[in-house]
Write a structure and sequence with these properties.
The chain is built from 5 helices and 8 strands; from the N terminus they run E-E-H-H-H-E-E-E-H-E-H-E-E. The chain has about 180 residues and is an alpha+beta fold. The protein has one domain: Aminopeptidase (3-Layer(aba) Sandwich), CATH 3.40.630.30. It has an 8-stranded mixed β-sheet with strand order 1-2-3-4-5-6-8-7, with helices on both faces. The longest helix is centred in the C-terminal third of the chain and has 17 residues, at about 115-130. The radius of gyration is 16 Å and the shape is globular.
């Protein structure tokens, strides 16, 4: 069975980015990100009420890594590695089937600059090579064309459309699933 067991948190680097563990110093940036209605428009999760909610989330993410449940990186620019500008990671893992769900979000100041593409390429490669995933999926709002396009650009294929899959803030919402299968 698949396991997410590493001796230390795997820091990844790309040409412009560092993907690293979340720290408490990220709380302010993460609060700004997760309370930004533009960023969260298609992410159906409760918004943090205050900085303490985000500090709890950071603790939860880090404990999830320690327990082998998830692997979520803070995205930072190499020229300013202490400032988190987004996050990407494997939030849900189906260990028996070697499959994980990837998700990502980015500060709008950095949209349309290839940041998520760069981080996604690195995270996918790590998932297949170092985690030994067989497939990676993403759960996307059908209205989120930008996310759909980035997934298609990087080899994901539409796998499913679920009618009224989620109940969030008084509405039933549809969902699309995209997947990338490691055929090598």
């Amino acid at each position: 069975m698949l396991k997410l067991q590493f001796t230390s948190f795997p820091t990844l680097e790309t040409e412009r980015l560092i993907l690293r563990a979340h720290t408490n110093a990220d709380a302010k940036a993460l609060f700004a990100l997760r309370s930004n209605e533009t960023v969260m428009k298609y992410i159906y999760r409760e918004r943090p009420k205050d900085i303490f909610d985000v500090q709890t989330l950071i603790t939860t993410l880090n404990k999830g890594f320690e327990n082998g449940d998830n692997l979520v990186w803070a995205i930072a620019l190499k020229n300013n590695p202490s400032e988190m500008i987004g996050e990407i990671g494997y939030y849900r893992t189906d260990f028996a089937n070697h499959r994980a769900e990837i998700g990502y979000m980015l500060n709008p100041d950095y949209w349309r600059k290839g940041i998520i593409s760069e981080a996604l390429i690195k995270a996918i490669a790590f998932g297949f090579k170092n985690i030994n995933l067989h497939s990676i999926c993403a759960d996307v709002s059908p209205e989120n064309n930008a996310s759909r396009q980035i997934l298609l650009k990087h080899g994901f294929e539409k796998e499913a459309y679920f009618k009224e899959r989620y109940y969030f803030q008084g509405k039933f919402l549809d969902s699309e699933i995209y997947s990338f299968v490691n055929l090598s």
